[in-house]
Specification:
The strands form three sheets. Strands 3, 4, 5, 6, 9, 10 and 11 form a seven-stranded mixed β-sheet that branches. A two-stranded antiparallel sheet has the order 1-2. By secondary structure, the chain is of the alpha/beta class. It starts with a helix and ends with a helix. The protein has two domains: 88 residues, Winged helix-like DNA-binding domain superfamily/Winged helix DNA-binding domain (Arc Repressor Mutant, subunit A); 214 residues, D-Maltodextrin-Binding Protein, domain 2, CATH 3.40.190. The C terminus is likely disordered.
Length: 304
């Protein structure tokens, strides 16, 4: 008796069909009948009772089926545990990001990572900027990506790339046929922007030159997708990270303009525990993040 035999018998009970059971297990119909007959001979009981063109379980068959399912379930659990053990030995990544980085920056790196690292685990956790900065981090988190250094003595923060702000409007708006956007227009055109304490709004306003007054806001949201929906509904304008608006489905909807005579960068930091020794998975992913495997923000935007 083996696992394969138990599975064939269980499939036969559940499908009540010898032909379908044979196909499910890639064996002949006669092989299914033979497996059942050998089981009955070995156990010295009748498992099935034939009834014209069908069959039903005997009382002994019902008991055997019940325990066969338990054994199969335990076998599946064992296989999963062994697989997880192998993965932990090789190493894995538990990555923490905030929502805009997780939605627009990280997916490109993850695709690059899994081209060569299919055997490693990569768990992505999300949190807002304020909570990540102040909360007691889950000890399982071994890598963080943020737009500012983490204010925690136990972590090292390393700049690995930069994004930049651009003006976003509808392609059919008054700015739709221009090549750049002058910040002077903010005096007469209020922004659809981020909420007051959002990290991207803080970086944007800190990057404004002193001669430029703080912009006025028509609407405020904490998510980029909500800002883009508001642009579409109200024919508004917004200042957003460049990486967040170069999506195929938006190609003909939005116009993206660089800021005239001004460049406001969005730094992106790779953050990890100072006392942590990177495993193989982390080493590879960090190499991708640092651009040592040919990926960069400019390439991400081009390939989106």
């Amino acid at each position: 008796m083996n696992i394969r035999t138990l599975k064939i018998f269980s499939d036969l009970v559940e499908n009540a069909n010898f032909s379908k059971t044979a196909k499910l297990n890639n064996v002949s119909q006669s092989a299914v009948s033979q497996k059942v007959r050998l089981l009955e001979e070995r156990l010295n009981v009748n498992l099935l009772e034939k009834k014209q063109k069908s069959f039903q379980l005997t009382d002994e068959g019902a008991v055997f089926y019940h325990h066969a399912k338990l054994i199969l379930s335990e076998y599946d659990t064992m296989l999963k545990d062994l697989q997880n053990y192998d993965i932990q030995t090789l190493g894995g990544i538990s990555l923490l990001v905030n929502y805009w980085i997780g939605n627009y920056i990280i997916p490109h790196y993850v695709r690059e990572y899994f081209k060569t690292s299919k055997i490693f685990t990569l768990d992505i956790h999300y949190g807002d900027y304020k909570n990540i900065q102040t909360a007691n981090l889950d000890p399982r988190i071994n890598l963080i990506v943020l737009e500012s250094p983490l204010q925690n003595e136990g972590f090292a923060s390393e700049l690995f790339t930069k994004d930049e702000f651009v003006m976003v409007c509808l392609a059919q708006s008054e700015f739709g046929n221009r090549q750049t956007f002058s910040m002077e227009h903010l005096d007469t055109h209020p922004l659809i922007g981020f909420t007051k304490n959002h990290s991207l709004r803080l970086i944007f306003e800190q990057g404004l030159e002193k001669k430029i007054s703080r912009p006025h806001y028509l609407m405020e949201f904490n998510q980029i997708e909500l800002i883009k929906q508001a642009i579409e509904m109200h024919n508004g304008i917004a200042i957003l990270p460049k990486s967040s608006v170069h999506l195929p489905r938006e190609e003909h909807l939005f116009q993206v303009l660089p800021l005239k005579d001004m460049h406001i960068a969005i730094p992106l930091y790779l953050i990890y525990r100072k006392t942590q020794k990177p495993n193989r998975a982390m080493e590879h992913f960090i190499a991708i993040l640092k651009g040592k495997t040919t990926i960069s923000i400019s390439k991400l935007i081009k390939n989106t």
